[in-house]
Amino acid sequence: MYYAGQMSAPAVLHYFRSVADRSPLPVLLYNIPKCVPYQIPIEVIAELAEHPNIIGIKDSSGSVDRIRDTVAATRSALRRTVTVTPVFEAVTGRMLEPRSEAGGSFVSAGDLAGGAAVASAVPAAAIKTRTKEIGFQVLCGSLRRCLVR
To answer: Is 58 an active-site residue?
Structure first.
C-alpha cells in the first residue's frame, strides 16, 4: 500500500518467488487494486506462473480484458498433477493424514483464539480423491464487475 510507487517488476518477482520458495503450501497470487493501489503486471504474472509453487491468481480488477490477457499470457505455463475430490475441490496432504481417536490433526479455532480447545470429530469415511492435470488457474474475483464492463 505505502510502497506502490516502488513496485518494480524485479521487486515483485523477487518477493513472490521468495514467498513461493519458502511456502509449504501452493501460492495463489491476488490482484485487488481496489484495496492496494497496484496491479500486478500481466507480464509479471506470466513469469510467476512458471514457478512450480505458484498455482494461480485471483484477479479482482473487474476487467474482462485483463482476465482474457492473463489467461492468454499463462496458457503455456507449467502444468501440474494435483489431488482433488470428484467435484474438483482441492485436497491437501494434511486433509489425508490419519487422525487419532483423541482428536483431529488440525489446530482448533479455540487454540488459535486462546480459548478452550475443541477436538474435531474423526471423519466417518476417507475422502474420495482423484488426480487431475491442471495449468495455471486464473480466477475472477469480481465477476459482476467483469460482466458489467
So the answer is: yes
